[in-house]
Structure to design on (568 residues):
């Protein structure tokens, strides 16, 4: 038996033929057929040396090392059928908003019809590594996304899906099912698949002429305008207006059929459905197909950041859609409009669990709101605090002391000198309304009622300081308390009318997911788009378009070398 010591001191064995029978039952089979070329490439990666194959860098360093080490450093992609499945999956990665070039599509696609016997032994080893690298990177991006969410959403937190990618590859090869394995790594929620389908349909518009429309003047029903011919064409391409103009007397007239199509378009884009073709509507009409695809790509990526399942029962808030829904046993049972944080006080993206409800809550005013919002109003209006039923305390906790607001020199206070606490007592003017839904978190953000219910009629509803105001919140309270002994809608009404604070702990905490999606497919199968309220899509799309790099969750840092050693 001959031994060779690797760069890391790992001794690898190569058995002489006369000793084969003796060791065959005692030695790992993989040790008998280690591919020297693969061994040397893996050792180079482990030592931190750069490795490229035909100009494409290998990126999944840790996973490649773990996989081939467990497999005895043998080649695993001898099957033309398995290679074909991987190549097809790579070429279809764009359906998920991913870039096939990140998975060596340029090289792999050229191998479609060529048997591995066409190549030298060394090149076969390199191509084997390339196929494995493509699978490992694509599978990890399918599972957890390409972009680290904290690089674009500093506050983003969730329990993400986790797998050992080398085990995923081994199982896929053992079952001879590359396609099915990769498909199983996609988010399982139907919303993800619907958005993929919508993306595929939207790609047919790429290459269509889409010259900018002037935003002024506003076009009103009954008007005649030279822009209407192009608007008709775009609405037809987008599916809002039936193809053909047989029933149109004059394509430059704003008739009833076109008005209905415009109102449908406005609704799908979160605009006021008034039929007026003004600045916001023209801006949405000018959104090019490639820009719509990027919005979808951003949403698909955010889906891949989520846990394995949202839960059988959960509450979900879409910040960009100004909407909340509750799902029970995988069926939507409630949908309400919400008000979210202003662009300068953004509602964070995270997942948690609703643990308890508070009826007739008090509101302890956050320090930022006290100083930036309320202090200037108190200085201007001495009756402000009493009118809103806000109490003033010096200190915190059990030792705090209630003060008369008139005894405080408010004009002398500032952010560096504000030793008071403001607490709004329960009542019709309380900023939290008459119920709040609590999931204690580091952002001090939660769902609650509001006395300012008129704002729910607005199309764009970003008016809060970060918390989420819920329209008709007692409907949500009733659903959440359905399994709590002794609670009913009648009891909720009695407790609220009593005006005394009461806390109710849920028998079982309910998951709540606060997300930021600017595109989705609704229950009627309509593709919806919303304005990028917080300008978050641009950063994410920029990261998605960058060349993939080694993911530190599954790989080591990427290195690049000279590819002169082998060519096809």
């Amino acid at each position: 038996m001959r031994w060779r010591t690797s760069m890391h001191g790992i001794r690898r064995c190569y058995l002489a033929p006369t000793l084969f029978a003796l060791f065959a039952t005692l030695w790992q089979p993989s040790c008998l057929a280690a591919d020297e070329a693969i061994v040397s490439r893996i050792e180079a990666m482990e030592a931190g040396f750069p490795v490229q194959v035909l100009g494409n860098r290998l990126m999944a360093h840790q996973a490649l090392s773990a996989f081939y080490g467990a497999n005895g450093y043998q080649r695993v992609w001898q099957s033309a059928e398995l290679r074909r499945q991987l190549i097809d999956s790579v070429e279809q990665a764009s359906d998920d908003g991913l870039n096939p070039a990140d998975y060596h599509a340029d090289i792999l696609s050229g191998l479609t019809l060529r048997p591995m016997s066409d190549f030298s032994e060394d090149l076969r080893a390199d191509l084997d590594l390339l196929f494995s690298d493509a699978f490992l990177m694509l599978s990890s991006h399918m599972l957890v996304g390409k972009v680290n969410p904290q690089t674009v959403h500093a506050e983003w937190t969730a329990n993400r899906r986790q797998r050992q990618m080398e085990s995923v590859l081994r199982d896929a090869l053992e079952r001879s099912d590359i396609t099915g394995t990769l498909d199983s790594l996609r988010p399982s929620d139907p919303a993800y698949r619907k958005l993929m389908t919508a993306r595929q349909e939207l790609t047919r518009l790429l290459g269509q002429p889409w010259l900018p429309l002037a935003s002024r003047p506003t076009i009103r029903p009954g008007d005649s305008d030279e822009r209407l011919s192009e608007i008709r064409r775009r609405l037809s391409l987008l599916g809002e207006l039936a193809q053909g103009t047989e029933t149109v007397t004059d394509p430059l007239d704003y008739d009833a059929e076109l008005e209905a199509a415009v109102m449908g378009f406005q609704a799908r884009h979160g605009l006021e459905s008034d039929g007026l073709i003004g600045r916001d509507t023209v801006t949405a009409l000018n959104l090019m197909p490639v820009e719509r695809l990027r919005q979808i790509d951003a949403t698909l990526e955010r889906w891949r950041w989520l846990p394995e399942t949202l839960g059988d029962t959960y509450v979900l808030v879409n910040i960009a859609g100004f909407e909340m829904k509750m799902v029970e046993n995988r069926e939507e049972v409630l949908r309400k409009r919400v008000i979210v944080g202003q662009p300068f006080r953004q509602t964070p993206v995270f997942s948690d669990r609703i643990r308890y409800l508070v009826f007739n809550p008090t509101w302890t005013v956050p320090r930022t709101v006290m100083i930036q919002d309320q202090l200037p109003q108190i200085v201007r209006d001495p009756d402000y605090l009493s009118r809103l039923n806000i109490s003033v305390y010096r200190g915190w906790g059990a030792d705090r002391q209630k003060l008369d607001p008139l005894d405080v020199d408010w004009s002398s206070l500032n952010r560096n000198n504000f030793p008071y606490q403001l607490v709004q007592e329960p009542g019709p003017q309380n900023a939290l309304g008459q119920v709040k839904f609590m999931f204690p978190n580091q952002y001090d953000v939660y769902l609650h009622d509001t006395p300012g219910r008129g704002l729910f009629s607005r199309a764009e509803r970003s008016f809060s300081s970060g918390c989420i105001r819920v329209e008709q919140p007692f409907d949500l309270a009733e659903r959440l308390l359905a399994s709590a002994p002794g609670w009913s809608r009648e009891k909720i009404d009695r407790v609220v009318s009593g005006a005394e604070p009461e806390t109710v702990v849920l028998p079982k905490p309910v998951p709540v997911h606060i997300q930021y999606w600017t595109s989705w497919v609704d229950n009627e199968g309509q593709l919806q788009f919303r304005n990028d309220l917080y300008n978050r899509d641009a950063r994410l799309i920029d990261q998605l378009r960058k060349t993939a790099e080694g993911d530190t969750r599954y790989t080591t840092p990427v290195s690049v070398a000279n590819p002169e050693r082998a060519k096809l």
User: Anything to note?
Assistant: The chain is about 35% helix and 15% strand. The chain has a mean pLDDT of 87.
